């Protein structure tokens, strides 16, 4: 039984391009891919050189960085240091100290076993897990993994992703952190639970730290050595400290500061994420009266907070927001910068001015070529989107930077389509009126055909 557990933990894999008889077990040697903390402490997210052992011949060879990269890509292990650094950089200074001082945490550090951190959504589990990782790393090397349902690659929500990531860390590490186990895919949760139990049973040198919305027993783990529940009283000091830190950067009058602090602390119910959402809304208000009025109508929980955020969207943009939300929630591929020009052309064609503004601000290439109408400017021009044409020109769209003539995006283009105001604007901005191409040849011929005096 013990042998089976060890086989589960130390998986045997076949290396790409190896001979058919070569089965190798990955054993990390020296570490790289280190994420640098603001204070200069390096966190291991992988290994620099790996040794691989021929199981049949018991031979050892070094795997250099190039081969290691190929193996890591083949294993397709997610990089948990991205989550670590994101959480670390958002932490409010001084929060989470209570956990490091908790007797159960310190006993776990000394004695090993399984420490289970349970708390509802938005209670700060990820920040506390990150705080613990940072603290432990000063004394030991650590292995850690963040389950993440928002991960665009989808690999941070699976058992395979977790195991692949842990395989790339040092086997000598005895402190293992798993954050947000509840975000693991339901079909894989029993595998993760089994692995946790098997690791803990290996001996007292294994220190497991797991955070989850649910209690340990709820997910089939009845042998947690220590359990810490993030109730309202436990995280209250962190919430107070976070509020104080935020309003140091934007001071309020004494009476308003007191009202805000009391209202947020009272309504948080242990959810620091709820507090952060309300602060973002309050910071948009410019007067004392507006702030005090808003405090009387705070949402009850995170779900209501998110619903109110959607309701506040301008009614003219609600359909767009709903479409974008569905795209972000259910898209199987990460939204990359290279896709922005295509989206920009579609938004220009449809007349979605706010989306066009947002995409341009986020770096979409205004002059990128492609699609039925050539580029965003031609798409907007053809449909008579005058405001979007003005916006694109103001933002630097090159009127003559097209693989087609600006007049050529369809027969007669927008001259034939009676878009005189846009024509005037483009001519004033330097469009080449003699450019040849298209069904009608050039702008003058297209206008003449329709007997236009433009």
Automatic annotation (TrEMBL):
InterPro entries xrefs: Ankyrin_rpt, Ankyrin_rpt-contain_sf, NPHP3-like_N, P-loop_NTPase
Source taxon at top rank: Eukaryota
Keyword flag Repeat: yes
Pfam families linked to this entry: Ank_2, NPHP3_N
Name the UniProt record assigns to this protein: Nephrocystin 3-like N-terminal domain-containing protein
Lineage: Eukaryota, Fungi, Dikarya, Basidiomycota, Agaricomycotina
Segments forming domain Nephrocystin 3-like N-terminal: 94-167
Keywords: ANK repeat, Repeat
Repeat positions for ANK: 344-371, 372-404
């Amino acid at each position: 039984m013990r042998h089976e557990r060890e086989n589960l933990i130390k998986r045997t894999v076949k290396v790409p391009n190896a001979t058919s008889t070569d089965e190798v077990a990955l054993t990390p040697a020296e570490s790289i891919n280190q994420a640098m903390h603001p204070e200069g402490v390096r966190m291991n997210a992988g290994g620099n050189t790996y040794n691989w052992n021929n199981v049949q011949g018991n031979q050892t060879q070094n795997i250099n960085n190039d081969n290691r990269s190929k193996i890591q890509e083949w294993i397709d292990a997610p990089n948990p240091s991205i989550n670590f650094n994101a959480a670390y950089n958002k932490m409010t200074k001084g929060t989470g100290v209570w956990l490091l001082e908790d007797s159960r945490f310190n006993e776990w550090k000394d004695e090993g076993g399984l420490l289970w951190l349970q708390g509802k959504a938005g209670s700060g589990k990820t920040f506390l897990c990150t705080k613990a990782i940072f603290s432990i790393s000063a004394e030991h090397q650590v292995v850690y993994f963040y389950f993440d349902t928002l991960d665009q690659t989808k690999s941070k929500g699976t058992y395979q992703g977790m195991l692949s990531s842990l395989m790339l860390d040092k086997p000598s590490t005895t402190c293992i952190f798993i954050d947000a186990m509840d975000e693991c895919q339901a079909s894989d949760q029993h595998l993760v639970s089994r692995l946790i139990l098997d690791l803990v049973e290996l001996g007292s040198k294994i220190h497991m730290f797991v955070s989850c919305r649910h209690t340990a027993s709820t997910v089939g783990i009845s042998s947690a050595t220590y359990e810490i529940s993030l109730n309202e009283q436990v995280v209250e000091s962190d919430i107070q400290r976070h509020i104080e830190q935020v309003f140091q950067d934007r001071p309020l009058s004494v009476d308003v500061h007191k009202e805000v602090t009391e209202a947020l602390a009272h309504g948080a119910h242990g959810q620091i994420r709820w507090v952060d959402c309300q602060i973002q809304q309050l910071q948009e208000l410019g007067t004392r009266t507006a702030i005090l009025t808003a405090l009387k109508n705070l949402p009850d929980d995170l779900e209501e907070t998110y619903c109110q955020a959607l309701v506040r969207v301008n009614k003219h943009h609600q359909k767009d927001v709903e479409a974008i939300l569905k795209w972000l929630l259910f898209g199987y591929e990460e939204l990359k910068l290279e896709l922005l020009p295509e989206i920009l052309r579609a938004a220009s064609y449809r007349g979605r001015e706010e989306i066009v503004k947002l995409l341009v601000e986020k770096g979409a290439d205004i002059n990128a070529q492609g699609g039925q109408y050539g580029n965003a400017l031609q798409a907007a021009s053809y449909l008579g989107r005058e405001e979007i044409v003005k916006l694109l020109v103001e933002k630097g769209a090159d009127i003559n930077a097209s693989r087609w003539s600006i007049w050529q995006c369809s027969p007669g283009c927008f001259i034939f389509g009676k878009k005189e105001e846009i024509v005037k604007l483009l001519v004033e901005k330097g469009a080449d009126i003699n450019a040849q191409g298209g069904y009608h040849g050039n702008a003058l011929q297209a206008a003449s055909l329709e007997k236009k005096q433009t």
